[in-house]
Specification:
Blueprint lengths: L6 E2 L2 H6 L13 E3 L4 H14 L3 E4 L15 E4 L6 E5 L4 E5 L4 H10 L2 E2 L12 H6 L7 H4 L6 E7 L5 E5 L17 H4 L8 E8 L1 E2 L5 E7 L2 H13 L5 E7 L1 H10 L10 E7 L9 H10 L8 E4 L1 H23 L7 E4 L9 H14 L6 E5 L4 E8 L2 H20 L18 H4 L2 H14 L12
Parallel strand pairs: 2-4, 3-4
Antiparallel strand pairs: 1-2, 5-6, 6-10, 7-11, 8-9, 8-10, 12-14, 12-15, 13-14, 13-17, 16-18, 17-18
């Protein structure tokens, strides 16, 4: 295998870049760690000539193995981590792809601005990674995923050419097919398969004057999910997230919350309000809504202030972090963590979770830890497969669940992308015509097929 001159074959470096949050380990032939866009361009020009596969990576927090490879060069963008500009007047930020989202958010907050995309792993994931998989997170309920906030991109194509694309400000456009109107959207969510994003400009919002977090415990899971549905349409409240924890997830969250969540709790819903300037959080309305839907109103926990809100975020992040730890312990036995990010219309979520659990019972598989963005109809189900046999049974349950999800008008992947692990299920959702159109775009931008082999297609 040819290796670009700027890459290293050092085994220690290669092993340091061989794993992500998917539970898989893939040892690349080489690792390149460029410091600027020109170095990326030079590497890709050389790789294009020699037909050497190149897989871009950031913080390597992918749950779908999109940021690891056993073919060619792993292109780590972590050294490209500069915040280039924060403009309070235009409300934009420009930064390189390798900057950690947590650092970028703090730079924006120092200027009184909010970066809306909200992956839970913000302290480990990068801006480029968020763009590559169109990441979202808890606050998607109000702010949406990464895509609508991206105003401009600097992308290095497989040829080594550097492309600058900017989102149009037109309100009307009838020139050509709608799919080609805004090339930014080709790259957001493309998982490194069409080009390497090296820098981006994103739109920002004013930083909220205050944020209040509210954790509502429930004695019954169905009550918790009914509460979520009601909160989507209730007058007098404006949640920016509605996060659900089933009994297994609540047990993990309770441990991380150091006793603030009462032990009888069978389910938990966490929400946040960010009132308009001068406004007050609608705490009384939330308590009323909780009581109306079986919530344990006397045990509601309120998080106000920077430190308590950070504690609430750690509580939420503890669930996937703990499951990652448990999964990593089973790699040597042929097992790993298995995670989903399917979504359905939020009104159908409770029914689809119930059907998913029935499928697990029928297969003799221990129930998943289920948690996540219920306000968007988007839970995560996490299992730990102890060995290869159990892994196969769990993946059978996942596929059967995804068929139920599609039948309910849902999607097999709502925020983590397809990567390598979900590629086998792409045909459940996309028609051959849609996949053919994707392949045509891939051939146009990457004719030699060197970028991120195995991801998506």
């Amino acid at each position: 295998m040819n290796v670009p001159a700027a890459a290293t074959r050092d085994e220690g470096v290669r092993r340091a870049h061989a794993a992500d949050a998917s539970g898989l380990v893939m040892l690349p032939d080489a690792v390149a760690r460029p410091r600027d866009a020109q170095e990326v361009a030079e590497l890709l020009r050389e790789a294009s000539v020699t037909h050497t596969p190149v897989t871009p990576a950031g913080g390597q927090t992918s749950t779908t193995a999109a940021s690891i490879t056993a073919e060619g060069t792993l292109l780590s963008l972590r050294a490209m981590d500069r915040v280039l500009e924060v403009d309070p007047t235009r409300r934009i930020v420009r930064a390189e792809a390798g900057v950690l989202l947590g650092d970028l958010k703090r730079a924006c907050a120092a200027a009184g601005l909010l970066l809306p995309p909200d992956p839970t792993s913000e302290e480990e994931s990068t801006l480029g990674g968020a763009i590559a998989c169109n990441a979202s997170g808890a606050r998607t309920l109000r702010y949406g995923p990464t895509r609508p906030w991206v105003r401009a991109l600097t992308v290095v194509l497989a040829s080594g050419d550097i492309l600058e694309v900017r989102r149009t400000e037109l309100e009307k456009n009838t020139v050509g097919y709608a799919a080609v109107h805004d090339p930014i959207d080709w790259f957001v969510g493309s998982e490194g398969t069409l080009g390497v994003v090296v820098a981006a400009e994103l739109a920002l919002l004013p930083l909220p004057e205050s944020v209040t977090g509210i954790a509502v415990p429930f004695a019954d899971e169905r009550d918790a999910l009914r509460f979520v549905r009601a909160a989507r349409v209730a007058d007098g409240i404006d949640p920016r997230c509605l996060e659900f924890f089933d009994e297994r997830a609540t047990a993990i969250a309770r441990e991380a919350a150091e006793g603030r969540i009462p032990s009888p709790t069978r389910a938990l819903v966490y929400t946040e309000e960010a009132p308009v300037r001068g406004g007050e959080p609608a705490l009384q309305r939330w308590l009323e809504l909780a009581e109306e839907h079986g919530g344990l109103a006397d045990d509601v926990v309120v998080y106000e202030g920077e430190t308590p809100l950070a504690d609430a975020r750690r509580m939420r992040h503890a669930v996937p972090a703990r499951m990652n730890e448990r999964g990593a312990l089973r790699r040597a036995h042929g097992g790993r963590k298995v995670s989903t990010d399917w979504a359905v219309p939020y009104t159908k979520l409770a029914d689809v979770i119930e059907r998913a659990r029935a499928l697990a019972d029928a297969a003799g598989v221990e129930q998943a830890v289920t948690y996540g963005h219920a306000g968007n109809g988007h839970p995560h189900q996490n299992w730990v497969a102890h060995d290869g046999d159990e892994l196969a049974r769990i993946e059978g349950v996942v596929e059967a669940t995804l068929r139920e999800v599609i039948a309910a008008g849902g999607t097999i992947a709502a925020e983590h992308g397809i990567g390598k692990l979900k590629r086998k299920w792409l045909g459940l959702q996309l028609t051959p015509m849609q996949v053919g159109a994707m392949r045509a775009l891939k051939r146009e931008l990457d004719p030699a097929g060197i970028l991120a082999p195995g991801n998506v297609l």
